[in-house]
Write a structure and sequence with these properties.
binds zinc ion, little secondary structure, about 55 residues, two-stranded antiparallel sheet, globular
């Protein structure tokens, strides 16, 4: 499956863990609960920081 946001790296807003490396993560989800800290991150265009773009 292709990525919804190609090349974008996702990080937890709470603990800064790399969400891309967590099992089951897919950027097609609207939200993702961090497996490290349990924080629910939203996955949307508005949540991409300038530095996270390719
Ligand atoms: Zn986290």
């Amino acid at each position: 499956m292709s990525e919804r946001f190609p090349g974008v790296w996702w990080y937890c807003d709470h603990c800064n863990a790399s969400l891309d490396e967590q099992p089951g993560f897919d950027d097609h989800y609207d939200t993702w609960t961090c497996r490290e800290c349990g924080y629910r991150n939203t996955i949307s265009e508005e949540d991409i920081w300038p530095g996270d773009r390719p």
